[in-house]
Amino acid sequence: MDVLIYNFGLYLACFAGALLLSLALTPALRALAVRFGHLDAPTTHVKTHKVATPLLGGVAVAAAFAASLIAIRFLTDFPTGTLRDLRVLLTGGAVMLLLGLIDDLRKPHGLGVKTKFAVQFAVAGFTVFYGIKIDFLQPSYLAAALSVLWIVGVSNAFNIIDIMDGLSASQAALAAAGFLLIALPSESIYVNFASAALCGAALGFLPYNFSRRLKIFMGDSGSLFCGYILAVIAMGTSYTTLNPLGVYAPLFILALPIYDTIFVSVMRLRRGHSPFIGSKDHYALRLEALGFSRRRVVSISALTAAGLAVAAFLVTQVPMEWGALIYFVVGGEFILVSLAIAKIKV
Predict the structure, then answer these.
(1) Number of domains observed in the structure of the chain
(2) pTM score above 0.85
(3) What are the tens digits of pLDDT across the range 254-289?
(4) Which domain holds residue 161?
(5) Could you check whether the bond before residue 207 is cis, i.e. omega within 30 degrees of 0?
(6) Least confidently predicted of 40-54, 153-167, 252-266, 308-322
(7) What are the residues whose beta carbons fall under 8 Å from the beta carbon of 177, sequence distance 6 or more?
């Protein structure tokens, strides 16, 4: 019990450090973006903001995340495997951040889809090669392939959902908190520290993302970074020994970004468009068209994500029959909501 309390204090310190660093770094990087003209201008029809807005918020989130983890390294003795996993996490995250940053700098057109996917698959392959992968599937090559697809898919899901102030960052913070909630009893060290750090870093960015006077975006750099970190975190703990269905709990924790990715892809394909071409089919924009303010849409999404995180935790704690019922009920709700949202004109 004393060890658990001590570790919890370290997790809290990691969270607080990332939060404070993010709060301090975000306005500094905003000023840097303004100085060098690194702005996201609403030059295409899919942009939903009205004026050119500084980017580099993602760099602040990533820097706060990395700095808090590196600092906490000197306050505790990480097992060898944990140090390796954190190095892989930071290396892969840095490449994803750089990829998004280059894409942001080349706006409005950005990098090509093939180039971005090539780098993302390479990063995912690197991550899996060093042992961070889905471990409940056989044969091993199938687990490795699905792990690569999972990393690329979740990374892009957070990029796709980043279409409204506070939406992607709040989902990242809540997802990180959800993984911490589930992993904490098992003492999955790297998962706990990375979750605490990302939660704090994302929360520290949010006040500026919502601000009118000091507004800043994460950009593709931030959304890809957050998505990658969460995809890797999701594969870092066993979730439960009570219920074999508990291994699918990450689908609940990351449900909204994954759902939006699938939803917009289906809607685009139904119109005969490529799923890789931007459009305003997102569920969040459809709720806005229904009359909800953007703050209300983000709040509804945050409450939904929090509820899904609780559902994910419950799935890991109950017998298989109850776990299956939870999946069935939640899955049914998503289908019904999708049918209703699809009818909203945007």
Answers:
(1) 1
(2) yes
(3) 999 999 999 999 888 888 777 777 777 889 999 998
(4) 2-341
(5) no
(6) 40-54
(7) 195, 199, 309
